[in-house]
Amino acid sequence: MKTRSHDVSPRNPLELLMNPQIANRTVITFGTFDVLHVGHTRILQRSAALGTRLVVGVSSDALNLRKKGRRPVYDQADRMEIISQLRFVDQVFLEESLELKGDYIQQFGADVLVMGDDWKGRFDEFQSLCEVVYLPRTEGISTTSLIEEIGERHDRQRLALVGHS
Ligand code: CTP
Question: Is the alpha carbon torsion for 117, 120, 122, 127 positive or negative?
């Protein structure tokens, strides 16, 4: 039988009953979520566990270009569609500007803002609007390292083919 990890998540009604502090709380988080990997799914699942509704701001292609200096592999429509299909995500919207975080928090009625701890301290100003939580990143994986790894594998294969011709 397939193991269903959400059976052990705090979204489980029994755990919610035992922990009323997370009941009826909206959690908001942000990110590019390009080339989805386990670091992304883990932070989203842990974010969802802090409340009853998880809203995710997916960075637009233009914002990602400004923020990280490259166009995402998957465009914003695909990234939003992928994230919206995760069972612990309730709502997805397009994050168009880093300066609008406070507006998004208010617009979506967020009680908790979650960011990866690579941003630790940088969003404390929003403590006047909601609780701000920094969760540890999953070690050893990132979209950047995956893209590099795929490129290196491709180069090695091409070199091997050239060597055999
Ligand atoms: N994240 C995480 N663990 C990782 C990678 C990302 O917890 N190993 C979290 C980030 O802290 C952020 C969210 O996932 O809250 C989206 O991060 P994003 O920047 O889209 O992913 P990265 O893999 O860090 O992307 P890049 O390499 O392009 O910077």
Answer: positive
